[in-house]
Amino acid sequence: TKIGIDAGGTLLKIAYVENDALYYRSFRSRDIDRAASWLTDHFENPAICVTGGKSHALAEKLNVPAKTVLEFDATTQGMTYLADQLNHPLGNDFLFVNVGTGTSIHYVHDGKQERVGGSGVGGGTLLGIGFLATDMQDYEKIIQAASEGNRENVDLKVKDIFDGSVPPISGDLTASNFGKTEILVEQPPSDPDILASIIGLVGEVIVTISSQLAVQYDADTIVYIGSSFRSNPLLQQIIEKYTRMIGKTPLFLENGEYSGAVGALLAT
Ligand code: ADP
Q1: I need a surface site. Which of 11, 33, 107, 151 has the fewest CB within 10 A?
Q2: Are residues 21 and 124 in the same domain?
């Protein structure tokens, strides 16, 4: 069996082929021992290729040799393959934004990627600030709670400042993330409101940096991947809306969070 693994900061993503079909599986990176036993128990004579920051930590725990490949190249290969399979070829020229624990932004031209930017603001920021603000730790619970939240209780919009008069830019834009200070003091927002606003902050920071880079590199399509979009339509909506606002086309690749693992699989 051919197996590709992307051992990331938060999640360990596995892609493997069985009977000509592609399968996915993920583990928390802190459960790396469990992942290694699952791999050992599940596959006879596997051909394994690993990528990601925790590649060596994982390879040491396997009882078979594992090849390693460079993460950024594996991710590019993997996402190109996934997009082709979905009949949505990415073309010659695009930007991709990997929203993982942190965020990494790459420009791809003629199949070659170049890392052109990034931000420490990513999925880890949601989990970290989310925990500090609400004491919640479970990803699915955090995302679920956020979906019931209302950012209007936390974030200051342009129209809140231009009270009654016509603003020079869309009143619906965020003027200040977490900026409704006076109201926050008077009436503390609920945990869901805070979590929804954290997702807003993360999404708006990422989309601002990404769209500026898309303009700089003259790329029409921005492909967004990474496990931070898992079960998180709110993050996707924010990024989608702002990407379209600057005239670029956002693309959220199905199973895109497995791009690195698929790229590693292709390199076995
Ligand atoms: P990395 O390669 O850095 O591990 P990922 O692309 O796997 O990055 O994304 C990690 C992020 O995905 C987390 O910070 C979190 O926001 C989100 N996430 C999605 N599912 C989970 C989960 N089950 N447990 C923890 N985080 C999750």
Answers
A1: 33
A2: no
Q: What is the CATH number of the domain that holds 26?
A: 3.30.420.40
How far is 246 from 207, CA to CA, in rounded Å?
10
**Residue to mutate (ligand 1; options 139, 223, 225, 232; most atoms within 8 A of CB):** 139
Domain limits for position 196: 119-154+189-252
Instruction: Report which residue type is found at 253.
Output: L
Three-state secondary structure call for residue 176:
strand
Q: Please indicate whether residue 71 is annotated as part of the active site.
A: yes
How remote is the CA of residue 91 from the centroid of ligand 1, in Å? 27
Question: Annotated catalytic residue: which of 18, 60, 71, 186?
Answer: 71
Mean pLDDT of the chain: 97
How do residues 53-85 score in pLDDT, each as one tens digit? Answer: 999 999 999 999 999 999 999 999 999 999 999
Looking at the fold, whether 62 and 133 belong to one and the same domain comes out as: no
26 and 137 assigned to the same domain? no
Residue 164: its pLDDT value, please? 83
- Quick check: is 223 in a domain? yes
Q: Is 265 helix (H, G, I), strand (E, B) or coil?
A: helix
Reported ipTM: the value is: 0.99
Residue 68 vs residues 38, 53, 59, 201: alpha-carbon distances, Å: 19, 11, 9, 35
Protein residue with least CA distance to atom 17, ligand 1: 228
> What's the pLDDT tens digit per position in 30-45?
999 999 999 999 999 9
Q: How many domains does the chain have?
A: 2
